[in-house]
């Protein structure tokens, strides 16, 4: 990462500038635009910060270090969560693929079994139809055999 100490010194320089001039920010705002331009055009040199500014920077530096550590920890957690999500998606995809294959196999098995049942029912229909035809033929044969006998007994009774 970048070193942020120069940024902190730049951020703290207007405060040092105001205190070194013994001017409040309000008083600077009340001054003329030309005066503001002149005052802002020549900021005081910040090459050697005072010991009080060093004391102010110490807590900020430690806080920045804490924030960097926290940021690194959060980035690590995010990377871990991303990996967990990828692993979960991969496992889910594998499960979905497995279930689809199982369903496809079950569907094929079901189709085969349904076709087999249709064939068996057709055979049963054919067998039943054949049996019905046989029974009908047997009944017709029986009635034909009985009919001549009945006619003969009727003839004998009429005589």
Secondary-structure-based class equals mainly alpha
Order of helices and strands: HHHH
Residues in helices, as a percent range: over 70%
The count of helical stretches stands at 4
| Quaternary form | single chain
Strand content: under 5%
Straight-line N-to-C gap: 135 Å
Mean pLDDT: 76
**What ranges have pLDDT less than 50 throughout 5 or more consecutive residues?**
1-46
Mind explaining what this structure looks like?
The longest helix is centred in the middle third of the chain and has 108 residues. 0% of the residues are buried. The protein has four helices and no strands. The protein is 88% helix and 0% strand. It has a domain of 110 residues. It is mainly α and 159 residues long.
Features:
159 residues, disordered N terminus, 4 helices, mainly alpha
Question: What's this, in brief?
Answer:
Helices cover 88% and strands 0% of the residues.
Write the layout of secondary structure elements.
Elements: H1 5-21, H2 25-30, H3 33-41, H4 51-158
